[in-house]
Write a structure and sequence with these properties.
Order of helices and strands: EHEEEHHHEHHEHEHHEHEEHE
Number of helices: 11
Radius of gyration: 21 Å
Largest sheet: 5 strands, mixed
CATH topology of the largest domain: Nucleotidyltransferase, domain 5
CATH superfamily of the largest domain: Ribonuclease H-like superfamily/Ribonuclease H
Structural class: alpha/beta
Oligomer: single chain
CATH class of the largest domain: Alpha Beta
Shape: globular
Number of domains: 2
Strand order of the largest sheet: 4-3-2-5-6
Helix content: 25-40%
């Protein structure tokens, strides 16, 4: 599909961006409280979650801000029915925030001083949800799982990995750029702002199918996944593996990739023909739905 830029003028010379105020999700005309009550069998509760942290190390760094917003959705169509409860809070990390993180997020030592996340409140929100969504779940989930047993028992979905943005005409899957491509902007790298931006984005119907992006995300979140471990792969195949989306595990010394389970046969053919030039020499590990994107 050709590149899309929502908000472009008819003559193609300008693009108009609007600041996102709150979370003005697009909902279907039938989505009334009465309809939700009468159709409770297909209405589910989800949550969009985002964290800001002191750094990228999921073992040594810590959360400095969390944002969560619940929403009701039609499990069949993927349409957002209504917004739900929300929670946001700073967290004092107990050590100075680096200048780089403060510059990125706008969060300072003064803002977090003496602040603490109420994990009972977080757990209460997550317990009501059938799915928890983050734009980079592989980053956010390990930080939450360290603090919340409820999180470890939930199905997580990743709007970065489980929506094929490229086939929809978008050259980047970064949230800030997807927002701009869709005609709006927000104060990025603040947890609740990113939460509202993502939930609004997911409620927008895609071109062609006219189904919200959330529909594809939920369908993919229900598909079992498998980890491919390309152990003993020849050194000269590293560029092929990297180009195919494999990442290098420096601790265990192998290339690995997580794909949908129904894609494994095709991947095995590629590995045997391109990497091993013979029988597959690695292993596969099925991942339970509740274990997706865990550290």
């Amino acid at each position: 599909m050709a590149f899309r830029w929502i908000g472009k003028s008819q003559d193609g010379k300008t693009v108009t961006l609007n600041r996102l105020e709150g979370c003005p999700v697009q909902t279907p005309s039938y989505a009334t409280p009465e309809w939700a009550k009468n159709n409770s069998d297909i209405v589910r509760v989800g949550a969009v979650l985002d964290v800001e942290t002191t750094g990228l190390n999921q073992t040594e760094d810590t959360i400095i801000e969390i944002g969560i917003r619940q929403f009701l959705f039609n499990r069949n169509s993927g349409e957002v029915i209504a917004l739900g409860k929300s929670y946001s809070s700073f967290q004092d990390p107990g050590r100075p925030i680096s200048a780089e993180i403060s510059e990125l997020t706008g969060i300072t030592d003064e803002m977090v001083a003496g602040q603490h996340i109420d994990w009972n409140a977080v757990n209460a929100l997550l317990e009501e949800c059938s799915v928890v969504i983050a734009h980079n779940a592989r980053f956010d989930r390990p930080f939450i799982d360290r603090k919340s047993k409820t999180s470890t028992e939930r199905v997580w979905a990743c709007s970065h990995k489980q929506i094929d943005w490229s086939t929809k005409g978008f050259t980047s899957s970064k949230l800030e750029l997807l927002n701009i491509y869709h005609g709006f902007f927000t104060d990025s790298h603040r947890a609740i702002n990113d939460v509202d931006a993502l939930l609004y984005l997911l409620s927008i119907p895609e071109a062609g199918s006219n189904k919200p992006y959330l529909h594809e995300l939920l369908n993919n979140a229900r598909r079992p996944m498998t980890q491919i471990v390309a152990s003993s792969a020849p050194f000269e195949s590293k560029d092929h593996l990297k180009g195919r989306g494999y990442s290098w595990d420096n601790i265990n010394r192998f290339w690995t990739k997580i794909i949908f389970k129904d894609e494994v046969p095709t991947e095995m053919v590629w590995l045997e023909e391109t990497v091993y030039c013979g029988p597959f020499g690695g292993l596969t590990r099925d991942i339970a739905l509740v274990d997706g994107f865990k550290g």
